[in-house]
């Protein structure tokens, strides 16, 4: 028995029980080692003319024996001498592959793709094996040698037999472990099945550059006997056939011009288990400090669990065609969590287990480029395939809006132009840039209304009042909309027609344009205003004067109405939104940062019934031109406080109903209506 050339027991125990967290990657590591061995022989043949190789014969074989509880990984690569077995397997954390890479760094090029780095991948076998036997014959040697260990104290190396060069790694799989103390046991039988091994190969090693082959069981119909009668029923038999399990060539490393749209679609649907084609395929190769390939997909529909807490975002991360992480969350921001795909880079620094990354800086650099590419592709979709983009936004726009809100508006400049909202004036979905381009001269803000139904919003007095003045209103029906707008605060509209400070400057610009000059443009900051909050400053001078006079003349009336409504409202005032007899008699607006819709969202949350939930500061605005206002004045002049209180409650509850909110006391509201009838 030879001892490992380190503090073996302690270090080997660390390798087996601490470095790796996922036992099933043992096959990935052993196949990667086999691929390296084949690569080394292939590279050597490039400069050693005595080595005659048919690259079509280079392969990796995987086999299992359920009865003997063994798994065998074989290659016909360069093999190892007795000294190399001693050095590579007897010394933990000595990497022959890393040594090879360093020695041939200047000359290996694309002909080889050495995967190993740390010299510990082999020892992952002991996570599932009670004993590991390695039979290896170096190329050009006549004798083979056998390395064997139970992974506890040491190993043996003895002469052995192998028909040709290469290596066999034979694992004796552990017995199943029963569960104890309520904990689930460990079943190792799953590795001793055709399906289990094929699944691991396809998941982790599907794109290793050499064929990974297995004998697989298939079924075929037996020939029909010559003397079979008319009632003969076909009979079937099982047979075994050598099959290549892996795909070898990753689709993302092919030039996009060499891959058809159908090929991309089929890869997406089979890899990510979707039945619809993707809405967009994004393929690119990056060079520089980091070299990597990326193949991304924008799904054609939203996954059913996209907005659930169980949904996992992330792109599959590969290094040298070997999957490192199935979902690397750091590669995409939360607002692009719907994007699926693959990033493959040999330059990322992996930790010793190759399960996670070592340097966040490299990952952040890739993530920034991926994010910019996604944004660019979405902008192109928005501008050149609007129908598809509107369907995309219907599926995933909520997440983009939340990205602006969640970043406290810092992502507004990057994501704001991707947003779509329904235009009450245009009767279609528009971007903020399109809204701004269509604004009448002199408009200084973007107006929006928030509610749960577009048709109801379009009929609300606060919306119709703004539309009547010639300004468009964006009708927003998602609960995140107002939070998004408040985080943005304003929108910078690019290349807007320049607004001149005086007539002289305007006339000079018009003369210059008449002489052939290009029209002047400027970037304009537009405030985002909820039509149901604050003072929109849309009233004309005459309307402002009328409102001031009505307020002063009926000051006692407003005081009486406020007293009748109590804490329900902050104040009662003449409306600058409702100024015509044919408009609504009253509406509810709010002051401060919390709107009625935001209040509804807060109340629907987990702490909705708790004290301290933010409340909207409500204002009851009255239309001084409406006949109902004259009824209020008459009741005040007559000193009929009971009727005034009844009118105040009805107007307030009616305005709530228009906003899509129930009166605080529906029974009292119904009784008041009956009393008036």
Average residue pLDDT:
85
Biggest beta sheet attributes: 9 strands, mixed
Order the strands across the largest sheet as they lie in space.
Answer: 1-6-5-4-7-3-2-8-9
The low-pLDDT segments are 93-98, 104-119, 352-356
Radius of gyration using CA atoms only: 37 Å
Question: What characteristic shape results from the CA principal axes?
Answer: elongated
Distance between the termini: 104 Å
Number of domains: 4
CATH-assigned fold name of the largest domain: Heat Shock Protein 90
Q: Note the beta-strand portion.
A: 15-25%
Total strand segments: 23
What CATH architecture of the largest domain do you see?
2-Layer Sandwich
- Write out the CATH superfamily name of the largest domain: Histidine kinase-like ATPase, C-terminal domain
Helix run count? 20
Query: Structural class, please?
Result: alpha+beta
The CATH class of the largest domain is: Alpha Beta
Helical proportion? Answer: 25-40%
Any descriptors?
Ribosomal Protein S5, domain 2; single chain; 23 strands; Rossmann fold; 677 residues; Heat Shock Protein 90
